[in-house]
């Protein structure tokens, strides 16, 4: 009996497949996806056994199911696949210049003063807030699912959006340049393990920053604490006087208005 030699390339191949499967597991953890994948693997295993036993009719039926199943998976997991590809595309590295070409929106002049002041005042009154500061990543799909505003950023505007009884206080406000472009936007919630003390706003802040370069400012409705999320991580209990500096260190554009009167 001839044995197929096991080479170093085979080892790399196995490790890459294992890494890919682990990435899929982390991406789909907390959803029903693992159960669906288990069902698919069972069907595929049965198909292989049926083919080996030369059961033509059942083999043909299962073969069609497997063939159509690839397209069905793409449709079924479209949101997860999109998030996975965005997560790969936003990584800093050898392809960063491609991101700069396709995602560049020009210089972004962000007026931090009204955002910092509004967050400080909402922190005092324990008014929950979720503010997304866009950068290079395209967030048009997030903006489309909210209520479009397109108004210049101001303290009264932000406070009115997140006022507890206001119709727009649920969800996130999206700030692009010096304008609030939309409110009541639904953000993807992270599937990564986070402390149980994190509320929906904090989970959403981490979720959107896992797949984009946005900066998210959160004001807790329970404690009034201010948090800043970027790159899938969140910095808790940021002092109001340090908020502008914390946002600025994550801001990648060439020009930021840092004046905080």
Q: What are the SSEs and their pairings?
A:
Layout: H1 8-28, H2 33-52, H3 56-76, H4 78-89, H5 96-103, E1 110-111, H6 112-124, E2 129-133, H7 140-144, E3 147-152, H8 155-161, E4 172-176, E5 179-185, H9 200-210, E6 215-219, E7 226-230, E8 233-235, H10 243-250, E9 256-257
Parallel strand pairs: 1-9, 2-4
Antiparallel strand pairs: 2-6, 3-5, 4-5, 6-7, 7-8
Helix pairs in contact: 2-3, 6-8
Strand order of the largest sheet: 3-5-4-2-6-7-8
What is the name of the CATH superfamily of the largest domain? DNA integrity scanning protein, DisA, N-terminal domain
**Poorly predicted tracts of residues:** 92-108, 253-261
Return Rg in Å. Answer: 23 Å
Rough shape?
Answer: elongated
Got a strand count? 9
Tally the helices.
Answer: 10
Structural class: alpha+beta
User: Strand share of the residues?
Assistant: 15-25%
> CATH fold name of the largest domain, please?
YojJ-like (1
Proper CATH architecture of the largest domain: 3-Layer(aba) Sandwich
Main sheet?
Answer: 7 strands, mixed
Mean pLDDT: 79
